Amino acid sequence: MPDLTHEPGAPGSPRIVILGAGPCGLACADELERLGHREWTLLEAAPEAGGLASSVTDPAGFTWDLGGHVVFSHFGEFDRLLAELFDPAELIHHDRSSFVRFRDRWVPYPFQQHLHFLPAEDAEECVRDLLDVCRHRGSAEVGGADFASWLQGMYGSALVERFFDPYNSKVWATAPAAMASSWVAERVAPVSPDEVLAALARKVPPKRRWGPNATFAFPARGGTGAIWRRLAARLDDRLRTSAPVRAVDSDARTVTLDGGEQIGYAHLVATAPLDQLVAMTSSVPEHVRRAAGRLRRTTVAMVGLGYRSPTTDPRSWLYFPQRDVPFYRATNFSKYAPANVPGSDTATFSSWMTEISMTPGTPVDHDALIRSSDQALRRHGLVPQDAPLASAHLELLPYAYPVPTRDRDAALSAVMPWLEEREIYPRGRFGAWRYEIGNMDHAVKMGIDIARRLVAGATEELLAPPARLAAGTRS
Question: What is the pTM of this model?
Fold first, then answer.
């Protein structure tokens, strides 16, 4: 257990410094308070807390999230936090209703469990290949397989060609063959050949509703960001916004802010992107810098489109594997909460939030993305052709999702132990750089776990020890 009685850096500086006031950093600070540990400072570069889980309201009065967020939980700690922050009436609960656009029709999600919705020829080919791989399945379920091989071994060529390859290539801006398969767990739905055959014969849906977000909640007002604004509000002035950090001295144990101010720490909890953290940290060996440089991510453009047209579509979100549609997902955002449109007037307004994935550094033509997204929504019948566009808002997220590449775990095994040996603890979506534990509830759990570890010596329950990452350990 580290010695918290010694405080390096300037006299009076906090012993625990947290970088980043997203869900992980906020939860860490809140848990330190709950544990009675008062010597912490939380530094956030942006003017407001929330990070990737923030929400914005545009000049026309439409509220937008920075990507598709819904509230569901694997952890009691997240449930407790939500109950403390919201009265039951302040959350709207939904049953997920998601579909995939395929040719001229909508196929319920998960696609592979609803093959009876496909045209007969497509359904027959998919089922034939699926049954064939099920008879020969074996190596496809080994965690070391690349994602493309895993998909082929799990679902067969016909399903991969029709959905999995085009969709995953689009959402990840990365070829599935360049990705590992150890991350899939509950992120990719399994399929039962018996249920598929029964559905084809009787045209009935599967009995199970797959996934932890089969039901979800959403704040009645303020978007997902309302959660984190409320959590930030109960922290005191040790949460400092507009305080970007430019350097970390791992020997002196200080962080330097853009203005030159130095703050000492005994422990540094870093929720900033891992590659940025390594780049700003002193004395990092070259092999660790090279490993951090191998980490890959997506950039996402969130294009929010508000219409002077009633909210009538009952569905939650929709997937688009087609190349002629710029976005991979469209979220029916006015359905989530009426307050997401001006005056909560869903009899007059509707709003759709679309997400376009790209490799970092891709030039972005804002007007072209807005125009093509609007046209695609109309072309596929989600918005009436004559509906007036009331608002168009684009948010570019340079760090959207960490990509689980084939060498990700090897890279993390080089980076994470070096940092932790120096009392630097990367956590959160881009601190841990593990997509499979990248949801808001995972981030909260990581923040709470590291607070308990630093104050009470507790074992972290979610994040695997760094030495195990190279073996492809799932959380």
Answer: 0.91
Cα separation, 127 vs 136, whole angstroms: 14
Specify the CATH architecture of the domain 56-72+89-96+297-402: Alpha-Beta Complex (3.90)
Query: Does residue 110 have a cis peptide bond before it, meaning omega lies within 30 degrees of 0?
Result: yes
Sequence-ordered list of residues with C-beta below 8 angstroms from that of 221, at least 6 positions apart, any chain? 90, 337, 339
Domain boundaries along the sequence of the chain: 16-45+243-295+405-471, 56-72+89-96+297-402, 109-202
Do 359 and 204 form a contact (C-beta atoms < 8 A)? no
Q: Kindly list the strands in the beta sheet with 329-332, ordered across the sheet, starting from the edge strand earlier in the chain.
A: 105-108, 98-102, 317-319, 329-332, 350-358, 296-307, 389-403
Helix or strand run (H / E) with residue 286: helix 286-293
| CATH class of this structure's domain 109-202 | mainly alpha
Residues 133 and 150 sit within 8 Å (Cβ to Cβ) = no
Mean pLDDT to the nearest integer, 383-388: 97
What is the homologous superfamily of the domain 16-45+243-295+405-471 according to CATH?
A: FAD/NAD(P)-binding domain (3.50.50.60)
Place of tokens 């209703």: 97
pLDDT tens for residues 6-30?
Answer: 344 334 435 999 999 999 999 999 9
Please give the distance of CA 239 from its chain centroid, rounded to a whole number.
24
Residue 3 has pLDDT above 50, yes or no: no
d(Cα 228, Cα 447) in Å, to the nearest integer? 13
Alpha carbon distance 391, 307 (integer Å): 7
